[in-house]
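Support reply, case 0932

Customer input (verbatim):
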Amino acid sequence: MTTLAPPPAPVREDGARHRSAPPTDGGLASRARRLFTGAPEDPRWARPALWAILVLATALYAWNLSSITGNTFYDAAVYSGTKSWKAFFFGALDAGSFITVDKPPFALWVMGLSARAFGYGTWQLMLPMVAVGTGSVALLYRLVKRDFGAVAATVSALALTLTPITVAITRDTNPDPILVFLMLLGAAALLKSVRTGRLMPLVWSGVAIGFAFNTKMMQAYVVLPAFFLVYLWAANASLGKRIRNLAVGTVALIVSSAWWMVVVDLIPASSRPYIGGSTDNTVWDLVIGYNGFGRIFGASSSVGSQGNGAGFGGEAGLYRMFNDIMGGQISWLIPFAAIALVAGLVLRGRAPRTDARRAALMLWGGWFVLHYLTFALAEGTFHPYYVTAMAPGIAALVGAGSVMLYNAFRNGSAAKWGWVLPAAVAASSVWAVVVLQRVSGSGTLYTVAEVVAGVAGTASVIGLLVGRFTKRQRLMGVAALAAVVALLAGPAAYSASAATSSTNGTNPTAGPSTGGMGGMGGGGGQRPSGADGGPGTNSGEAPGGSGDGQEMGQPPSNSGGSTESGTTESGTAESGSIESGTAESGTADGRTGGAMGGGTQVSSAMITYLKKNQDGATWLVAVATDQTASSIILESGEPVISMGGWSGSDDAMTLAKLKSLVKAGKLHYIVVSDSGQGSSNSEISTWVKANGTAVSDYSGLYRLDASDVS
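Our regenerated output:
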């Protein structure tokens, strides 16, 4: 009897063959098997490749956790939130809830819950960051795979994993990794609503972006024009239903965005902390001012910041993403992504209105373009790590575009499509060599990456063209793999550097220093302590590791009265560091500095003295800025008042408020200097010097008691 062979597995548009579905028992064993092997219709290599990428991402984000310093500013707020639920809710810098940080608190809540559950320390704060970083890679893979297949999804996931600035910021305690994850959740729900026409996924999309707003305010809204356009154009519903659903989704967005702001602004100012970064002690002013239009137009409603973004990311302009500072952080794949976006939309030009692939291209293209223009043209304070929010759009376009361009190159008209894929590969390969040339001499790693990018890029372009015109499919496939190597060699080198080197906790970047403030080699300030659950409680003990990589839980000696915790570079001066016994307060984040205590040194010996003589006060001391306060909080474990916010220019402390705190015995010590600016600050400095008792051993430190208040 003749036995018929089974038919070959069908070939999908992305070039991968479907597997024949194996028999399943529908039980736990079957589900566990699919977790590691993937769905029956996936190619056999797809799920193992995904797991390998996720392991790589986790390794990059979590490598040598003990060397991660984090951002002292947010670390202190998280620590304070573990000591007070009031400070936790408001996102206060100190456990006494005198002033908030200048961002909404959702990211602090996530890290704070981890710290409350597992104790306060580096890995406890970093655990959520590593989780959302790896989760973003997995989520992007799923989104791209649904519309463009496993090959595209794998390339996208690998591209996001190896985005240098994403590696750098995920190894930090800034809120951006959580922001990106929430935005991707919003995109996932939006695309589901577009496909199905159902309302609830659109509502959940609005909720996700609302939580992103409560992570970093207006930056979460950059993607909204693309979201609205994609749904209005491509959703599988009538025009009337699309408009109604958008209205409901917008309500969900507004509610989930505004609830915390409304609650806080409705609470009397006397019953809550001052809103750091605002001019009138309201969250609304923070939204539209310093964290809103101030970032775009270069002057917030609270302080002037014209042009200060150039100090971190270079001058504003369309070329900013390609300059010496930003080029190695994000620009590697931009040429390929831009070509892929245009070509992809042309390829889907005659598709139906509801075509899922075109809708996805519109979403990821809008994500990329809107972020690019926002960051490139922003005149206000601009840190390089902001652009990690742009990375998913670039990665998705590279993955989806690589498959679409390859299929068009292989099957389309040679005259029309025979040059597009080679041109895209050549453009990004040449650009990679240019970026790596800028840092030639910085190390063997970058030299090797430059050679690999140049050789693999050249081989890929030649192989693609020869294979296309000689009809050699295997050669084209090998050339396509060479293109992936060429395009990712540079980002891989920078990412490896970010994962294995100490970075500046306030302004983290990857790769060699190229002139921007911060970057490699600078610590973020006092590191959280280890297994003891928080900053030291023994007088005089500095709880964290040192900025030179000291292990957690090994307090440095205070015998010399100094604690080296790395420098925090922010703005035009080093701010908020405790190095060689000093905590220096200066200008930062593009905001005008110099308020009460500006430039005053606060030594570890002074902190020991303050703890010994706290005499039951709520706050250990009042200082000028958040940077100085946060370092003292992390060293002492006690609440510290930041009178002027991030740079000393907030009107958080008034003379009347100071007198009230002193009279109630809640504050005894204050650090002032002769550099006070602004009438209220000068008034406070004058009053303190006239009525307080100078502590002779520590310049600028004054003791105040209830009897000193008239």
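We compared this against your earlier run and they match. Two observations from our side: The chain has 26 helices and nine strands. Residues 239-266 form the longest helix (28 residues). Please reopen the case if you see a mismatch on your end.
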